[in-house]
Write a structure and sequence with these properties.
One of its GO terms (biological process) is cholesterol metabolic process. It comes from Dreissena polymorpha. This is 3-ketosteroid-9-alpha-monooxygenase oxygenase component-like C-terminal domain-containing protein. Keywords: Membrane, Oxidoreductase, Transmembrane, Transmembrane helix. By secondary structure, the chain is mostly helical. It has a domain at 40-135. 70% of the residues lie in helices and 0% in strands. The protein is built from four helices and no strands.
């Protein structure tokens, strides 16, 4: 007896308990592979986004460091210019102070008996005057100076 293969197949599928393969079930391995590929692509995209975020954070940190260095340099330069101005003022003051002192030294007069208060400080001044009197005379040399007033 000769069996028709199409008919045998139909007979097997007509039996109760036999599985009929639907087109969806036949495509199930392909669908699973596509889902796995999509998940892998999503994971790769997430990793790329994380790397981009890390790079952006590093760039922001570098910018903050550069701005901080620039601010420190500006502060140092400003402070340096202030110190230069202070130094110039002190030099002018000290030179004018010395000039005024020279004028005072040139015009000093000896007072034989100055009036002192009865204090420890004034007694020290009187003792210093007695010691210093050994170096003073009317013929002491005078320094030459162009100003004759005490104006600043």
């Amino acid at each position: 007896m000769r069996v028709n293969p199409h008919r045998a197949q139909r007979q097997n599928s007509d039996r109760p308990g036999s599985l009929k393969l639907t087109p969806l079930v036949q495509l199930l391995p392909v669908i699973i592979i596509i889902i796995i590929i999509i998940i892998i692509i999503i994971i790769i995209i997430i990793i790329i986004i994380i790397i981009i975020i890390i790079i952006i954070i590093i760039i922001i940190i570098i910018i903050i460091i550069i701005i901080t260095i620039i601010i420190i340099i500006i502060i140092l330069l400003t402070t340096l210019s202030v110190y230069i101005q202070i130094d110039a003022c002190l030099r002018r003051l000290s030179s004018s102070t010395v000039e005024r002192d020279i004028m005072i030294w040139n015009n000093k007069k000896y007072a034989g008996k100055p009036v002192f208060a009865k204090s420890t400080e004034d007694s020290l001044i009187a003792r210093h005057r007695r010691w210093y009197s050994q170096f003073y005379s009317e013929n002491s040399p005078k320094l030459k100076f162009q100003k004759d007033d005490l104006e600043f």
